[in-house]
Amino acid sequence: MNKTELVEHIAKNADISKAAATRALDSTITAIRTTLKKGGTVSLVGFGSFAVTKRPARKGRNPRTGDEIKIKAAKVPKFRPGKALKDALN
Fold first, then answer.
1. Max alpha carbon distance in the chain (Å)?
2. Strand pairing of 58-61 and 74-81?
3. pLDDT exceeding 70 applies to what percent of the chain?
4. d(Cα 67, Cα 36) in Å, to the nearest integer?
5. Residues contacting residue 43 through CB under 8 Å, at least 6 positions apart
6. pLDDT for res 13
7. Which residues share a beta bridge with 78?
8. How many structural domains comprise the chain?
9. Domain limits at 82?
10. 3-state class of 2 per DSSP?
């Protein structure tokens, strides 16, 4: 499912226009992004949690040349599914 299909699904199930569904989805994504950028977590009960973890700097190899390279430390988003979501899949 892509964003367009998700917007259509939201609009149909919530009985709202596609424009309103698009605004709602964009607002949700922006809120999650902003919270994670500030270092916070977003918990949606029954669905899961979004959080930021730190990945330390490390050494790697250039696959083409085999030379050793330095990979910078980074902050990466993580999603941890909730129990209800796990149960729905199994």
1. 57
2. unpaired
3. 100
4. 34
5. 49
6. 95
7. 51
8. 1
9. 3-89
10. coil
